[in-house]
Write a structure and sequence with these properties.
Number of helices: 13
Bound molecules: S-adenosylmethionine
Number of strands: 15
Distance between the termini: 42 Å
Shape: globular
Mean pLDDT: 90
């Protein structure tokens, strides 16, 4: 996740009575630009003062106790939430109430004359609020030395987690680095997942996600893959956009003889490789590819769970969720016929949340199938059970609570 071109930050700091200019390498998992203004803060800085500075665009380089920094981050979150509730959220909730009313009256968003233009706006406003929240919280920084050692009081050893997440720093250059506490927390969380694994109950196994790889927070769609009848001939299957390798593992366990899994993200390939090894799977191959593998036999089955929302990703971590202009989805469909064996099937796993948010219509989706020369053989549906679909205070509750995830089985017309 390190930027290919090194970027640096500078700040003035008083050490032992002498104020001087300091410089360090800048790391950002979200590709945030290096902060222009940094001030040094510590345990004496109040949460109100820190919040004011962060909102003004000043970044805060923490020199206090490690655990106090975590508490400060929580205090900043509470202040952001309070401010949002008072301003943006009030407007958004008003619009959301309207859409909830239309949902209660059994009208779809398309049937209601009041809501159609509100819902996409609501979604974009929500993303803006999240982005602003992320920018403010990312302004709390810490410095680590060239082997990711932290010199903060009561700091845990973060070097292994940072090395796994951000790669080795150039030790010969002997330069320290500055990163946000949020990125550090992300790296520590990912290290725990990678060590403990995430249980997938319906499969009776755990998968081990890596930092920066989509780790499915919801597993309802796994059941769809277990329920769909395999094509009679199932010698070769592709898993396009394999992520942790979860779907490829299901296919191999169900008896597909050869599975070829692709992803654009090198982190995903390393992660899937580890998961295949843990499962003792020798019949799964990995390729870094934009969609389809090269030099591969025709597939009896092509499985894909693409990013499900047609919107521009705003950071590398969002590429698994957002697909600008549905490019991956449309590319997958367009390329399917030339990779499928006779009688081959495409299993497309797709949530209809984009339809409820009015970012895509059902007719558009069906039109893309038809243009790609594919027809729907059958469809299996599941309702998400995750927390956000039940949270009535979520401004997008009406859309989230109506969401259905489907496995579309498509074949040549
Ligand atoms: C929603 S995630 C699904 C991951 C995994 N298949 C699963 O179901 O848990 C989408 C995956 O597609 C990958 N991806 C996005 N665009 C791609 C492309 N053009 N070619 C290959 N993989 C892509 C992302 O890196 C991500 O791992």
């Amino acid at each position: 996740m390190l930027q290919t071109e090194k970027q640096y930050v500078q700040w003035r700091e008083n050490k032992n009575g002498n104020e001087s200019l300091h410089k360090a390498r800048w790391l950002s998992a979200s590709s945030h630009a290096p902060p222009a203004r940094i001030v040094v803060v510590d345990d004496k800085t109040t949460a109100d003062e820190a919040y004011r500075l962060a909102c003004e665009g000043t970044s805060l380089l923490w020199r206090g106790d490690f655990h106090n920094a975590r508490q400060l981050l929580q205090a900043l979150k509470r202040r952001i939430e309070r401010t949002n509730e008072r301003s943006e959220q009030r407007k958004i909730k008003k619009a959301a109430n309207k859409s909830a009313k239309s949902a209660k009256s059994n009208k779809t968003a398309f049937e209601s004359s009041e809501t159609p233009k509100d819902i996409p706006n609501l979604f974009h406003q929500q993303r803006q609020i999240q982005a602003q929240r992320s920018r403010i919280l990312s302004r709390l920084l810490l410095e680590l030395d060239s082997d990711y050692a932290s010199h903060l009081r009561r700091s845990p050893d973060v070097s292994a987690a940072c090395t796994a997440a951000f790669g080795q720093l150039d030790k010969a250059a002997d330069e320290s680095c500055v990163l946000s506490f949020r990125d550090l927390q992300g790296a520590l969380g990912a290290a725990q997942w990678r060590e403990k694994g995430v249980p997938v109950e319906s499969l009776g196994l755990s998968i081990y996600p890596h930092y920066g790889v989509f780790a499915p927070p919801r597993h309802e769609y796994v059941q769809l893959l277990l329920d769909a009848p395999l094509p009679t001939v199932h010698d070769v299957a592709y898993d396009i956009g394999t992520g942790t390798g979860l779907l490829a593992i299901i296919l191999a366990q169900r008896g597909v003889k050869q599975v070829i899994a692709t992803d654009l993200n090198p982190r995903a390939l390393a992660c899937a490789n580890e998961n295949f090894t843990r499962q003792g799977l020798a019949n799964v191959q990995l390729q870094q590819a934009d969609l389809y593998p090269t030099d591969a036999p025709f597939a009896n089955l092509i499985v894909c769970n693409p990013p499900w929302l047609p919107a521009k990703p705003s950071s590398p971590l969002e590429y698994a969720v957002y697909d600008a202009n549905s490019a991956m989805l449309r590319g997958l469909l367009q390329g399917a016929k030339s990779h499928l064996a006779k009688q081959g099937e495409v299993w497309l796993i797709l949530s209809d949340l984009a339809e409820h948010l009015q970012l895509r219509t059902r007719d558009e989706l069906l039109g893309w199938f038809a243009n790609a020369g594919l027809a729907v053989t059958y469809r299996l549906d599941t309702k998400p059970k995750h927390g956000r679909s039940q949270d009535e205070t979520d401004p997008l509750f009406a859309a989230r609570s109506a969401e259905v995830t489907s496995l579309w089985c498509l074949q040549r017309v």
